[in-house]
Amino acid sequence: MEVRIQAIHFEIAERLEAFINKKIEKLARRNETISDVDVNLRVVKPETAMNKEVVIKVSVPQHGEIVATKTADTFEEAVDLALEAIDRQLEKLKQKK
Hints:
Elements: E1 2-8, H1 14-30, E2 36-43, E3 52-60, E4 64-72, H2 75-96
Parallel strand pairs: 1-2
Antiparallel strand pairs: 2-3, 3-4
Helix pairs in contact: 1-2
């Protein structure tokens, strides 16, 4: 599984990158079919609250791509919310089989 993390218009901290990798590893252990994960981090309107946006795209062979976009006060919170949404979508795919 390949994980690509992209911070748009800012430098990502190592701690945040480690946090994201740890969370994605947990997701991958629950669903072995995941091939690629793209994570895009962006600050929307820097002067407001709820301005950290995370877009996570998960490539699943035979099912295409699953995408979740979440906005929160912190990147960690947004990553957690997006991964919960991805997990729910993966569960639905598993039930369809």
